[in-house]
Amino acid sequence: MTYCVGLLLNEGMVLLSDTRTNAGLDNISVYRKMFHFEDPGERVIAIVTAGSLSVTQTTLARIKDAIEHPDASDETSIMKAPTMLQVASIIGDMLAKVRLEIDDKLTNMKQSASATMIVAGQRKGGAMRMFLIYPEGNFIEATEDTPFLQIGEHKYGKPILDRVVKPATSLADAEKAVLLSMDSTLRSNLSVGMPLDLCVIERDACRVSRKRRIEAGDKAFSAMSDAWSDALRNGFSTITL
């Protein structure tokens, strides 16, 4: 299991993912689940993934091959597509195709494989857009009413986002919100784990403005987590029925 979250705000976009992959409590590995594609100043695309590694890694590998192919076109390459909507369609089609191929191979074992992705980005002259792509290749888009998307083990980290995140939320506050959302998930589900990958994309920058890998024991993250726990306990003690 995993947890990934993306925020679409007036000032830009913030994405966060964990890196834990497990096939049982005695088989835990670390795999990156956040990927960036950039033509600085012209286009930036960030992808975070949840689900079967075989599906996500194969999908990302084919997306990269399509970008590097000598006959790459706006119908096949996410770095040539004229809109972010077309980018989402390309990725969705590839994800659905890979999932079906792997499912066919697993049929005799009575198993299946599935994955979801959050795709966020902006091209020069276009609007920032963020999509949640389902295993079947269809997708939904973040809006002003719902300016955040989650995949994986999302239920523990959703309450703070519901209460705090609005389109006008600053990037600094948004970064704090996604980290506290992740902290709540880490405390409640052992299948989500460190290290974490954070990405900030400022509006119209068309590049990744800031990246951060947060390792276990990170002092700043630990201090924030402790402060949040203290604030919750203090708030709880002041409420009367």
Which CATH class applies here? Alpha Beta
Helix and strand element order? EEEEEEHHEEEEHHEEH
Major beta sheet, strand line-up: 10-1-2-11-12
What is the average per-residue confidence, as pLDDT, rounded to a whole number?
94
For the secondary structure, the number of strands is: 12
Strand content: 25-35%
Global Rg = 18 Å
Which structural class is indicated by helix and strand composition? alpha+beta
What is the terminal separation in angstroms?
Answer: 38 Å
Q: What is the number of independent domains?
A: 1
Low-confidence stretches: none
Largest sheet: 5 strands, antiparallel
Compute the number of helices: 5
**CATH level-3 fold name:** Glutamine Phosphoribosylpyrophosphate, subunit 1, domain 1
